[in-house]
Amino acid sequence: MSVSVDRERGFLDAIGRIADEHAAPNADAVDREARFPAETIDALRETEALSAFIPPDLGGGGVAFETIAAACYELGRRCGASAMIYAMHQIQVVTIVRHLDEAPWFEEYLRRVAGEQRLIASATSEVGTGGDMGRSVAALTPMTDSEGASFEKQAPTVSYGEHADDLFVTLRRSPDAEPSDQVVVLASRDQIKLQQTGTWDPLGMRGTCSPGFIVSAEVLPEQVLPTPFSRVSAESMVPVSHILWSHLWLGIATDAFDRARAFVRAAARQKPGETPPVALRLSHLMSELSLLRAEVSSALSEFNEASAEPGRERLSTLACALRFNNLKIAASEQAPRVCQAALGVCGIMGYKNDTPFSVGRHLRDTMSACLMVANERIHQTNASLLLIAKDV
Ligand SMILES: Cc1cc2nc3c(=O)[nH]c(=O)nc-3n(C[C@H](O)[C@H](O)[C@H](O)COP(=O)(O)OP(=O)(O)OC[C@H]3O[C@@H](n4cnc5c(N)ncnc54)[C@H](O)[C@@H]3O)c2cc1C
Fold it and tell me: Closest ligand 1 atom to the C-alpha of 126?
């Protein structure tokens, strides 16, 4: 076995153990109490999973992007909130790694992420622009008495903001910049002031602990990622978000299917030799799950192919934007559909929260998917792109 195959397999084995030994046993309490899944995140830190994607020469594990996606899927099968926190952190890491442009501050920063297993949260949505990541209201404002700059951003939802070591923030480049002329700033916890503006008692994804905050900080010029956000967003942030989210939604839906199958097998044991009528529903459910699995897997392959091309220019085409937007829309609609069909199989045993066949948490967690950047907003973007795209 090659060193790289060995490394990927070893990493996924460790994630599988964390999913089974930490995420699964705490998932119900994390959901019920809307609390941070500390046991799982601590275990991920201990195995250095937070820096798994960072290249080895910067102190990281150097595992492939598809292995990170597989890890989100594995965690999603045991605890949706833990998987979402891991996915969001990795979206930030992958984006920084892909757009380093040899910026010394960011190289040193990634070494610190690896050495200290720092957890990165994000404030890309904003009051006033909602889930439209391509526009900002808040601006990076030069300080008059130093070379630094400051900002204050009204963030409606900052997942695990209270538990993160650093924050990845999108802002207008300067006070006179257009809303779409954005930069990414990486601010550390000791630079940031967080003023909580709301509570967090949601329907699902309760363990992500995502209230609103007014986020303010003073940062140095080198904490601004060199590449403009428009490029960062098209080449990395948007496709990577949609791929990692859809992997964890697939993980949640797969666990709902597994519970439904266990229910049907238990029913079959009651009457040996007969196929219970509900098995037919399980077959329908399996075909719905296969659709989701196929979409998630083909999008990952297409992203990997386009990323491997010199210059990664394909990722900036309208066709690619539509492709990864469609992944998000399809996966976010299909995952709750699978969970609801699993509920249809398990019946009252699935509806109750305390049976081996419960799928209420799965259904509630996946219902957040179409809101995480509202699907209607994405349809609106697609509608405009479809009018001008020649390469679709
Ligand atoms: C669990 C969870 C965790 C999150 N964590 C974070 C985080 O850590 N950091 C972060 O930055 N963001 C995060 N978000 C994302 C973010 O908070 C929301 O996506 C964003 O605030 C959108 O707000 P909104 O639902 O009001 O949608 P908006 O985009 O403001 O839309 C409001 C309503 O208008 C509709 N709408 C919007 N545009 C159109 C249109 N063109 N046509 C028709 N209808 C339209 C939408 O469907 C929606 O019903 C998270 C979201 C979730 C669900």
Answer: 21
pLDDT given for residue 197 in this prediction: 97
Determine whether the shortest distance from the Cβ of 210 to ligand 1 is under 6 A: yes
DSSP secondary structure, 301-361, as one string = HHHHHHHHSGGGGGGGSHHHHHHHHHHHHHHHHHHHHHHHHHHHHHTHHHHSTTSTT--HH
Could you write out the DSSP letters of every residue in 221-252?
GGGB-SS-HHHHIIIIIHHHHHHHHHHHHHHH
Angle at which helices 318-346 and 278-308 pack, to 10 degrees? 160
CB 188 within 8 A of CB 119: no
Handedness of CA 105, 107, 112, 117 (dihedral sign): positive
Neighbouring-strand partners of residue 142: 149
pLDDT in tens, 237-271: 999 999 999 999 999 999 999 999 999 999 999 99
**Is the distance from the beta carbon of residue 125 to the nearest atom of ligand 1 less than 6 Å?**
yes
Q: 208, 219, 115: which is closest to 157 by C-alpha?
A: 208
Q: What pLDDT is stored for residue 3 in this prediction?
A: 72
Residue 392 has pLDDT above 90, yes or no: no
Using the mean position of ligand 1's atoms as its centre, give its distance from the Cα of residue 159 in Å: 13
Predicted structure pTM score = 0.97
Domain ranges of the chain: 3-118, 121-223, 229-388
Q: Which atom of ligand 1 is nearest to the CA of 121?
A: 8
CA–CA distance, 373 with 90 (Å, rounded to integer): 18
Q: Does domain 229-388 have CATH number 1.20.140.10?
A: yes
- Main-chain phi, psi angles of 375, to 5 degrees: -60, -35
Neighbours of 381 (CB within 10 A): 16
At the top level of CATH, which class does the domain 3-118 belong to?
A: mainly alpha
Q: How far is the CA of 242 from the centre of ligand 1 (A)?
A: 14
> Per residue in 45-63, pLDDT tens?
999 999 999 999 999 999 9
Q: What is the DSSP letter of 22?
A: I
Question: Domain 121-223 adopts which CATH fold?
Answer: Butyryl-CoA Dehydrogenase, subunit A; domain 2 (2.40.110)
